[in-house]
Amino acid sequence: MVFNRLSAFADKVWNSIATVPSDGDYNAVSTPTNRSSAPAAEKGFALSIIAFEVMCLIFFALTFEMPSPKHVDADTVSTMNYYPMYMDVHVMIYIGFGFLMTFLRKYSMSAVSLNFVVAVLSLQWGIIVVTMAHQIGGDHYTTKLLDIPTMINGDFAAGAVLISFGAVLATKMMSHTKKFDMVHVQNATLAGGVAMGTSCNLAISPAAAITVGLVVGIASTIGFCFVTPRLERVIRMSDTCGILNLHGMPGVVGGFAGAIITFSASDDFYGDTLTSVYSAREYRSANEQGWYQLLAIVSSAGIGAVSGVFVGYFLKSKLFRQQKLKYDDEEYFYVPEECHA
């Protein structure tokens, strides 16, 4: 029953975000026939990625932990030795393989985005497999620190997958009527960085980081598909830069995530480094600082909403001449004729 409901919800979201007319006209309106003809393979593609990511999340939560900042100086030499290698390998996996096929003008977005999907899944699975293999023969199961050499092993595993299944980079995975929207892919990716910006100075477990990324990625995509169009119809809001879905909702989710992490930040784990992140922790407890973080989220959202409504109403008043031509320089600038060619 739960799986059937999840499948029905995934079908509804998939049909809404991935339906594009077969003639390639992204501005055309899709017909109900196109929305109801999603092949089972496409549904399975979405559900399989969700199931795989949930499985990886469970493994990361049970297997890995972050090193204590108190011992960061002891690992400085190892970090300086491995980090340049990690940067080079990471760029090769996520940019090198992706841009192999970008010379095809009509396939550049697929080359980068599909490579990104395969690399992300392969990297996580590679880290899990390599780490679990090291547990074989041990007396008992222990958690492992997620260090740079471990992430390098994950990159190498992803490279092996991308090389072995190179056809994925040059094969159309979707049908003519179901395609990815690069706006959703780009903004969902950036939304993860926005959400983690609140707590990036803290030692966050891999499972928590993955969870935050999943939540804000889904929220951002749903916002672009459902929330923004509805706001445009109801209150005629024109969010041309995707501020609500890229910075608004991910920022709020990231703020709550940072507050939750602040509640659990202990002096025993961070040592003296904690006051460099929260200077007020010199005279506040973890619970007090966490409540201050939550208060800052509510106050910031309230100030932004009230001031935004006030400024919008002020600009719409008769004190200002209303713009007639949107996204056109001719209303305010002299535009030479050759610029219209």
Automatic annotation (TrEMBL):
Kindly report the protein's main subcellular placement as a broad class: membrane
From the Swiss-Prot or TrEMBL record, give the protein name. Ammonium transporter AmtB-like domain-containing protein
Q: Which residues form the signal peptide?
A: none
Q: How does it sit in the membrane?
A: Multi-pass membrane protein
Phylogenetic lineage: Eukaryota, Sar, Stramenopiles, Oomycota, Peronosporomycetes
The residues covered by the Ammonium transporter AmtB-like domain are: 165-328
Q: Which family does it belong to?
A: Belongs to the ammonium transporter (TC 2.A.49) family. Rh subfamily.
InterPro entries, alphabetically? Answer: Ammonium/urea_transptr, NH4_transpt_AmtB-like_dom, RhesusRHD
Transmembrane region(s)? 45-64, 84-104, 116-136, 156-175, 187-204, 210-231, 243-265, 291-315
Its keywords, alphabetically, are: Membrane, Transmembrane, Transmembrane helix
Q: Where in the cell is it found?
A: Membrane
**What is one term from the GO cellular component aspect held by the record?**
plasma membrane
Biological source species: Phytophthora nicotianae (Potato buckeye rot agent)
- Entry's Pfam families? Ammonium_transp
Q: Name one GO molecular function term.
A: ammonium channel activity
Q: Which GO terms describe its biological process?
A: ammonium homeostasis
